[in-house]
Amino acid sequence: MPARLRLAATVLACLAALPALADWDKARLDKEIGGIEEQAKGRLGVALLDLKDRKLWSHRGAETFPMQSVFKLPLAVAVLQQVEAGKFRLDQPITVTRKDFSLFHSPLAKAFKGERNDYPLSELIRLAAGESDNTAADLMMREIGGPQVVTRMLRDGGIEDMSVDRYERQFQPEIYGLPGFGWDEAVDEPGFRARLRALKPRYRIASLAKALTDKRDAATPEASARFLEALAQGNWLRDPAHNAFLTKVITETKVGADRIKAGLPAGSTLAHRTGAGLTTDGVNHATNDIGIATLPDGRRFVIVTYLAGARADAPQREAALAEVARLAVSALR
């Protein structure tokens, strides 16, 4: 055999001996994702990114979806970056008054006693990123300089299609065309809910339809996957202890157990942040979950699930996100 042919044969043999790069079974994902979206009765956005070989697959990956409380994860990163910059300390007390309470879910407000209390910054991070506390999130965002600080951090990190623009106390009412609450006024949640019920259905429906395509407080699945990839690689924070603290918070959370986590095999772990909006006139604003999954064999991948404008009930919506996770695991080569 000529030397040139022997060399070519040797090269081919070596290539054949190398382990194949991992990739998604994209044909299977493309075939089955439509059925899950149909069952969810809404617009489903998904991004999967293998952290071993950085292979990406997405469904509606470049479309914009409302984040809801998913924003609390980049917010926590932005707060920790300011700790690293020396502007705050994790044990620094942050004063909270009843006037600071925000709309909807807030374990902090529920357990609040008296008129004012101090909380260490680390506890506010845990409440916001781990328990999805709206009061804690709004307070931290105000402390660091506002929503634009979080978006600027994302842009500086190369994430373009992920935007944090308003406080919870602002954007939740604005979804339905109602005025948000400023920091100079106490949030009147019963009054807000009464005004929401009093709106004519056609006005609520039209306002919600507009909010579902709003570029503010929204993200694409692919941008969210790149954000999580950088988090998994430890690129957002310089201090490994800060990265470990945040990862612990979002791994130990009990929120969203029936979404992505329910679709992973036993023994898996999930570091994640959920998001959920109101359902009015049979239409849900958003049911979301994004995270970093670690399988029992050590394989890790990013999974992003956004579900907007769904007409399915809450258990069906959550089951759809769990089904995406099952599909992802079965399609991971």
C-alpha geometry: globular
CATH class identity: Alpha Beta
Beta content? 15-25%
Distance between the termini: 37 Å
Enzyme class: hydrolase
Family: Belongs to the class-A beta-lactamase family.
EC number: 3.5.2.6
GO molecular function: beta-lactamase activity
What report would you give on this structure?
- With 333 residues, the chain is α+β, with helices and mostly antiparallel strands.
- The protein has a single domain (21-331), classed as Beta-lactamase (3-Layer(aba) Sandwich).
- The protein has 13 helices and eleven strands.
- Strands 1, 2, 8, 9, 10 and 11 form a six-stranded antiparallel sheet that branches. Strands 3-7-6 form a three-stranded antiparallel sheet.
- Helix 3 crosses helix 7 (147-156).
- The longest helix has 18 residues, at 314-331.
- It is globular.
- The two termini are 37 Å apart.
